[in-house]
Each structure stands twice: as C-alpha cells, then as structure tokens.
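Researcher: Let's run the pair from yesterday's discussion. Sequence first, then tokens, for each.
Model: Starting with the first of the pair.
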Amino acid sequence: MTAPALRPVTEDDLPMLRRFAVEPGLIGNDWLGFRDAGAQDRRFALDGYLGTDNGRLIVQVRNQATGFVTWSAHSYGGSAGFWEIGIVLLPEWRGQGIGWRAQALLCDYLFLHTPAQRIQAGTQPENVAEQRSLVKAGFLLEGTIRAAEFRAGQWRDGLLYSRLRTDPSVAV
C-alpha cells in the first residue's frame, strides 16, 4: 500500500468534487440528496477551499486524486474551539487503508498549524469500516449522539469520536 498524501485542491479536482454533489450513492451513507454542483467551483474561486474556519484537502495516492478530507471550526461554550473532520473516498479506493492514514495526516496537519486541542469526527453506527478507521487514526469513541442526523427519511443516531493534541501521534 502506497501511503496517501494530502494536497490543496486544484482546478483539475473540480470534476471529482462535482460528482459527490450529484451522484446518488457515491458518498455512501452520507448522501443527503442532490446538491448544487456549481458550489464546488464557486468555493474554489473564493479561497481554494482553504478558509480560516473550514477547508478541504485532496487525498492523493500515486499522483491520483482518491477523495478528500474536510475540517470545520466549532466551539463549546463560545471559547473552547475544536475542529470537526470528515473524509470521503471514491468507492474504488475504499478498504485499502487510505482513509485512516489520510485522517491521521489531517490531524497531524491541524495540530501542527492551529492551536486546537481537540479534533472530533462522527460516523453512523452501521459504518463499521469508518469506526475502525477512526480508531486506527488515533481517535477514541466518546459515545452515541441520539437522533443526530436526518438521513434516508428518518432521524438516526451518530457515534462521536475525538482525538486530543495530547493523545499519542499515530505512525502512518
């Protein structure tokens, strides 16, 4: 397995990003319906997906874009800031150990370049592969968030994982 790398989004990545907005099922359980595919181009033109409160990097393996990781700023009580991260890989790249490595790389990147103490990620109880991925990337399960998301016509629970700056780094 060739280790993944993270890099900024380029104009050549926009067709892949548009696909995730308009192809049902491509994103897996996180499909929330059709989205504005043009939003990808507008966001790229705005800041190249490298904003101060959120961003996106391409997951690359052997010079090929395989998906992307995201982060967004949140806070508890207005003062305790943290990042929430996510990942999506194209179906042909899943199950190869790319996802957990990319998430670990993103955590290292955020801990190196921002003062955040906490990074969290959520997933669905039925997404066992992502649960394993998060644990391999150094995350700990914090618990179940009841009725956390509306998906596929009903309210569903979520699982919350976190990694702290003081947790051991994971060898990728």
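Model: Moving on to the second of the pair.
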Amino acid sequence: MTPQAPTPAYRRLSIEERRSQLLDAALSLFAHRAPEDVSLDDVAEAAGVSRPLVYRYFPGGKQQLYEAALGSAAEELRHCFDEPHVGPLLLRLSRALDRYLAFVEQHGTGFSALLQGGSVVETSRTTAIVDGVRRAAAEHILSHLGVVEPGPRLRMTVRMWITAVEAASLIWLDEGRQPPADELRDWLVEQLVALLEVTARRDPQTQTLIQALAGDD
C-alpha cells in the first residue's frame, strides 16, 4: 500500500488571530458593498465560521463589528500618510498619495459609503473615527512641512486640501478610476502647492513656507 501523507495538525487560532480573521472578512465585504447590505451571516460565511462564533467575538452584533472594521481601516489610512522625513517634500507627499489612492481603489464601495455617510450603521462613534483620520492626516502633512505651531490660515489650508483629496477620490471612483491614479496623484500635489501659494498672499508664515519649498530639490 502507498503510504498516505500525514494530515496537517489542526491549530486553534488565538483570540487575536480569530478576531483579525473576522475583521479581514468584514473589510473585504464592506469594500464591495455598503455596510447596511452586509449581514453577520455574510461575514460568518466569508470567514468560514458559524454565526454564533461571530457573536462570541462581537457580542454587540453588526454595529460593533462595523465599528471595529472601520477602526481597522482607519488605522490603515493613517499609515498612508506615515512617510519617512527623507528626501524632497513633494516626492514624500506623492508616495503618501500613492498609498492613499491604492487604499481607495481596493476598498471602493466601502470607501464611498464611509465618506459619504448616510449609512444606517453610522453613529457619532463612526463619525469620530473618520474625523480622526482627517486630523491625523493633517498633522502628518504639517509635520512634513516642518511647521511646529501652524497658524489658523495654514492649518485651514491643509485641512481644506485633505477635504479636496477625499472629494476627488470619490469622484475618481464614480468616473471609473479616470484619470489614471498617477495623474490624479500629481494633480492633487499641484493643488496643495497652489492652495499654499494663495494662502501665502495673506499669511507670512505660509509665505515663508513657500519660499522654502521653492528651494526644495
């Protein structure tokens, strides 16, 4: 008789591994369907587990699972702007936007539902999670600009640009990912420079910053 290959030993997942598995399954579903269209049964099926097991890890049901998945996605978005402070500023910003647009493309439907709001599972907590990403992105940008204590005009300019990036991303998805991502990235970088130049006409701090950018190779 031909000897049979040994059956791989079953390994029970740790609590963190199981929780991560369920969150990954939920995020994959939210990436292609609006949150209200995803059920716990859908998540259980995607993860290859039973519905009671999902409840064991998320006793608050779908709302708790959605908020946890949103928090996981938000952490990934925060890391998009976590770029080393090495090399020319605009090149650093381009790399950050490359990661951001890759995330947008991967999580298309979920990203749209997240930013456009109106979901039946949207709460003050989910809104706070999204706003936290925006604030973290603004702090990263200001840090790369080398500004320790930004004035109100400069801070507003950066936050306006982040809002414009979000809006452009949503339109980009609606327009079938056109223009190509690299063109959109360059366009968005140019828009930040243009916004800073306009602000510099009224704000000495931003004017000094623009002068520094002009000499940034």
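Researcher: Give me one sentence on the second I can quote.
Model: Residues 58 and 153 are 43 Å apart (CA to CA).
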